[in-house]
Input
Amino acid sequence: MQRRTFLAGSLTTLTIGALYPATAAGATDAGLAAVDEDFLAVLTKANQTQIPLVLSTLQNPSDSVRNVARKARRLVSGYVWGKSSYYHDASLLAPLQWLVEQLAARQHEDGLYDVGNLHSPPDSSFAIQDVCMIYGLLDADDQAATLPQRAILEKVLKKAGPALAGGGVHTPNHRWEISAALARTHHLFPDRRYAARIDDWLDEGIDATPDGIYSERSSTYASEVTNHCLVTVAWLRDKPELLEYVERNLDATLYFIEPNGEVDTVASRRQDQNRIREVWWYLTQFRELALHTGDGRFSTVAKSIEQRGTGELGDFLAEVLERPEIAAVLPAAQPAPTDFVQHFPSQASARIRHGARTASVFGGTDFHDIPVISSGLSTNPTFFKLRNGAAILDSVRLSPVFFSTGHFRADGMRRVGPNTYKLSQEVKVPYHLPLPKRYRRSDGLYALTLDGRFYASMDFPHRPKQYRTLRTDVTIVELGNGWDLSFEFDGDETSYAIELCFRTGGTLAGVDALDASGNYQLSSGTGSYTVGSDRISFGPGNGATRVGMDPGERYTYLGGSLTPDGQRVYLTGRTPGRQVLQLRTS
Output
């Protein structure tokens, strides 16, 4: 292995690799750059905190092979790093031996692992990337005491490589995860099959839109995985052109970062579309690209992650020991964007921020093109989010009582003015008339077909129909002191509920408790949600009638739920007509 590590301890300068211009990090001499000692100190301390936790939960039967590999990576990082209090600590060797033996024991004869999915090349690749790093660090450290562990790891890698080179994937980012694992394995144990498979995957093209969004639209899962993998392939396979995709994605990510370090995920097609995730996952990516491009905004984000100190920052120590150029002093910081209106056409969304006040407008679910609930589709019914400092309105949703068709999901988003957005949906529900005579069967056994909400043996496509229709337009306008959301309904008379879900931890006022499960109603006047000195007021209420949020027959048939976590306030009304929801931050 090319020994680019600085395992024994800190250096004053380090050699910058081919991906980085000598001037990118404030080089002191040609090809040399100063080391960011503060950055190393953060990672060292974080790793030293992780190691006791690894030892205390070493033989956890519920650990996946990915968890086993990550535990080994944490131990090895401390063992080989000269400035760690665990440097060459012999007490780590027996636990490390147990972990690497697990990596060998759990490996199938075909070289793959079960990680939820059986004999899974992509899931195995996540673990194999860690195994490659572990082996590489131990090899560079070159201690006789770790020869037994290295021998086992070498067998694991040589067994896994052909399986990864011949295996398949499920999702777009899996292609890049396998490619990165193969690039690492090829770097340690060259095999032309590995290089050829990487080129096959890359030849399909990178699934990135012009505005920097990968096809899975996941700000904190697919993006941070894809970026990391593309960077790995770029430096190991000499393909610096891949960094252009990473740069575009990180530029887009700047606009999804909340003031507290969370990342907006409302448009995601993956499991994070209803979860809270933080930007710490991106630490080394922002450092990499800051050094590569000289972009001081990326420096600012990287330093903010260090200063915030949340997340498993110790996991990055292995990457830095492997590639010390990541630890170079960053380009001079430039302000990351904090006052903007940014439109993302590829996912029909907008992000707006003015200091501590942020908002998201979203109309890009996949539901109108593919009307099913499935992994890999964007189905989140949240269409607006608002933050005023620590006062967080995690979602605004709307659900009409209309044949159990579920939540309002906009069919796109239009920016109709500098501060105005329009979301629309038209729902048509059929009543089916008798089949024309030419389609009738004497045995009554008709095709099982989709009505739009459910299936039945009714040959729905060939039946004439009568429709009931409900059209909903939501106009969202930013004002100097907040937002107005205008709801206009046209069509059949029915009821609806608007749901405001606030982050748990604040104080609600002006609302009536509906039950003990965090549900409230604003019947009249104005309510408020307060955290410390930060406040969001909302209203006016539009009546005391209670209307349940109907997630739709696709959910209720099997007892599914779309109830978000938090403190939920409901406003209700009747269609047709118009209602204005005023959200104020001052």
